[in-house]
Structure formats: structure tokens, C-alpha cells
Amino acid sequence: MPSFAQAGSALFFREDWKETTAELPVTQAHVANPDLILTLYGPARDAIKKSNHPRIPNDPYYIWSGECKSNWAVGLRHRTELVDLGGDAKIAIRSRQSGFRQLRLLIKLASGEWLVSDQSMDASDDWKEKEFRIADIRWRKLNIETVTEGAWADKPDLGRVEEIGFTDLMAGGGTPASSRLDWIAVYGRAVMR
What we know:
By secondary structure, the chain is mainly beta. The chain has strands at 11-15, 36-41, 49-51, 62-64, 73-78, 81-84, 90-97, 103-109, 114-121, 128-133, 139-143, 148-152, 161-167, 179-187, 189-192. The chain has one domain: Jelly Rolls (Sandwich), CATH 2.60.120.430. It contains no helices and 15 strands. A 7-stranded antiparallel beta sheet has the order 2-5-13-8-9-11-12, with no helix packed on it. Strands 1, 3, 4, 7, 10 and 14 form a 6-stranded antiparallel beta sheet that branches.
């Protein structure tokens, strides 16, 4: 569990994915948290895989981009609430990237505008955890249809965030060039829709 969980930030949601066999594409049936709705985006949305390798010891149940032939993104939305990502809000992930893949956060504001983070999780040989302090992130506008970044977003209002997710803004290249996400945890203040 990330260290900041004891620092007073409230857990808004966490998603760990159901412990079921690998399947392509990932669907709502793979979401473990009953309060979350999964949405897939981008030209390669149907190639985002829910993966696991039973023969590899301690292999987690995770999302994998290796078969995506173009850009892709995964979004998670709470069924009844928005989240305020102001103040000391944070998002933590456990992931593993290979090749030049850098996994980034994405958010959808209540206004409908999509943003993608300048900060990312870099490639690693093994699974790693990272905490993103939201106040330290610069955001770029995101075209969710193509999953490509645009201009810098000037001081976006993060008080009413509707959806949170992740992307590496790239096509997959199999095991040597892909992104993997084991879990994501969002800490912020719940806001009524």
C-alpha cells in the first residue's frame, strides 16, 4: 500500500482486476471494483488485453498493450461520484513498461475535456510502484478519439473529475515494447454528480 494512504488522503477508488484467465479485449467483466465502469478508447481499443501467466510465479492479473496496433487508452469512472483531485490528491500505480513505453495518467473533466499527464512511469525490468502527486503534474489536452496529446492545458480545474485512466500514447510491439498495469489507486475527495 502506498505510504501516503496514512497521511490523510481518502481513497476514492482502487482497481486490481479480477483474477480470471487472460482475455482479449478487456471488458467490464474483468473489473473487480463494483463501483467502477470501464471504457476503452482509441483506434486499438479492441486489442487491449486483460493478461496473466499462470506458469509464471506471482504473475499479477494486469492490463497489457502489446497487441495494440495503434494508440489506446483505458478509462475508469465511478458509478455515482466525481472526484476532486485538488489539494493533496494523488494517484498510485503498479506497472511494468518495456521498450520506449511510458505509462501516463489521463483524466476526463466534468466539462468533457480530456487531459494527459506530463509525468509517466518509465520502462523497468520488473513491476514497480509509483505515486503521482497531482499538484506536481502539468497536463496536455488529449484527443480521446485518436489518443494523441495536444497543447498544454492552462491551469485546468481538477475539482470535478469524471474519469481517470492511463495510456502510453503509442502502439504496442508485443512483449519487448508494451505497457502493463497491475493496479491503480486514486486518492482525492468524493464529489456528488
